[in-house]
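**User:** Everyone, produce a chain:

**Assistant:**
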Amino acid sequence: MTLALRPVRVVVAWFSRTAFFRRYGPRMMPPLERAAAFVTRGRRGPLSGAVVPSLVLHTIGARSGQPRESALMCCPLADGTILVTGSNFARPEHPAWTANLLAHPDAEIDFRGDRIPVRAELVPDDQREETWRLLEAQWPGYRGYERSSGRVLRIFRLTPR
């Protein structure tokens, strides 16, 4: 993360943990993301990508078998893998895309202008603490979502295939 973006991310991360954002964010963000994609004709990543790295995840529905897509913030690592976390705005239920990856771990992402086939792997319990350190280096206070949700958030490692 560049030093110039860190203060912005700290403020946005704080706002994203407020009761207001947790209540209205799930309704506001998806339409804003779709509008940004429409206006830019998909050339720019998700709206949140202006502040934090983001991608669009393309999965197969766990129950429906239908194609699904979700705009997610992500944490790209130096080795080419990408971390995504099922925070679901700190709601008590896991987001549907996490069930999709558990059922169908082969997926695709749109990231930095490229469509990349990936394989998803749930981060094992013995690697969670180190993974949280990486995530919070990018998005300060992110683990607060786990505490507020009352559940263990699913964290996936997406590896290009």
Observations:
- The mean pLDDT is 84.
- Strands lie at 54-60, 67-73, 75-76, 82-85, 106-111, 114-122, 155-160.
